[in-house]
Amino acid sequence: xxxxxxxxxxxxxxxxxxxxxxxxxxxxxxxxxxxxxxxxxxxxxxxxxxxxxxxxxxxxxxxxxxxxxxxxxxxxxxxxxxxxxxxxxxxxxxxxxxxxxxxxxxxxxxxxxxxxxxxxxxxxxxxxxxxxxxxxxxxxxxxxxxxxxxxxxxxxxxxxxxxxxxxxxxxxxxxxxxxxxxxxxxxxxxxxxxxxxxxxxxxxxxxxxxxxxx
Length: 214
Prior knowledge:
Layout: E1 2-6, H1 13-27, E2 32-36, H2 39-43, E3 47-50, H3 56-64, H4 69-79, E4 84-87, H5 89-92, E5 97-98, E6 104-105, E7 112-116, E8 128-133, E9 135-136, E10 152-157, E11 159-163, E12 169-174, E13 178-185, E14 188-191, H6 199-211
Parallel strand pairs: 1-2, 1-3, 3-4, 4-14, 5-7
Antiparallel strand pairs: 5-6, 7-11, 8-10, 9-12, 12-13, 13-14
Helix pairs in contact: 1-6
């Protein structure tokens, strides 16, 4: 199994790669994890991971700056059904549009918008930062298999993914109102939280992703 973590100048790539390598070793999966900015490597990958930290528009621009990368990702994921995991802004880029400092086009792989977090409780600060409980929707997705009820995961974000279709929201977190924590459609999944920083919960999510056969 070839796992490509896309390096487009955004994201905690070292932490993400180390977490995937740890899961591969501990679960005996025999996968090769590669951090790459090369579209040809992504075009040969069995699984693709898109991390992301920063502003939506900057991350999209960084992705577009890699020759052939969006095309390679689209062919692998949308046409061939290769499993794809977006993390934090990497998840948000799956949306139709991002409304962070203007209106910006996303990949439009999962219909929806990326909007500012507006907690109903004025005491809750933005960005939403720290550990929070996940609440799963009925019919738990394979990405979330074998996790305890209401596990904790680590979040750092000021914007949220508002899915156009509720069925694409697989888990939520309450932060002065419901916020989508996990999205999914076909062979595509994304986490608003950082699995590489979420200890046992995050490592299990990574293992589930690597074992998933959509």
